[in-house]
């Protein structure tokens, strides 16, 4: 287990961080929240400070996180109905768009990607310590055990605009020493490509059902930022197939506020789809 790095993250993911509940209502922290609801808020925090850019999300908790961020501390975010419509307000997951602000055809979406005006939170079938990810195939390239999606937009996303990851099942099958196929570009490979290719490269956060991670280390390797309530650091280490950077005492991921819980439960996900993605 590595002990190098730049010190523990004391930003908004830590418990009691300043401004963590901005715009989310008042009241004591929602300590009755489910693990999924903690994950939704952790995903939302990935967009904190982004301002008026497109929040593109993949996965239930990630989508809910983007919409929650817009409803609370990042009102300037652009969110969609999950397709080509920019919604006037964040809508419940799976609901029609309602009033829209604009239409986002694929050519315009690609313009945002190429110009760094989008922050995407993708999934990953494999991820390594430098943030290289695989969504293409598992096993030997010539004869893979599993054929997945293909690299899709992962190379362009990771090279051109801010990228985070939402991984609902943290295990050694996902967090691996070396990915079988590089779909999303990690810090080590971006550095090898040189300044021209890496100048817009930026991996922000990895959120899983166990904790939150970033790459705020001198060599761009993965660091444990916080563990979710009820999770021990040793549990995260055992579920990770490489050495994480761990700096001192790891804080707990903050609980949702009561206001955030109301927005999640009553407005954004009244059907409770979040709890089908994350085990209680």
UniProtKB/TrEMBL annotation:
Q: Which SMART domains match?
A: CoA_trans
- Residue ranges, compositional bias (Low complexity): 1-12
* Keyword set, alphabetical order: Transferase
Asked if Transferase is a keyword of the record, the answer is yes
Tree of life domain: Bacteria
Question: Which residue ranges have biased composition labelled Gly residues?
Answer: 13-28
List the residue ranges of the region (Disordered).
1-28
**Which is one GO molecular function term here?**
CoA-transferase activity
Question: Family per UniProt?
Answer: Belongs to the 3-oxoacid CoA-transferase subunit B family.
PANTHER family according to UniProt? ACETATE COA-TRANSFERASE YDIF, CHOLESTEROL RING-CLEAVING HYDROLASE IPDB SUBUNIT
What is the protein's name according to its record?
A: Acyl CoA:acetate/3-ketoacid CoA transferase beta subunit
Source organism of the structure: Planomonospora venezuelensis
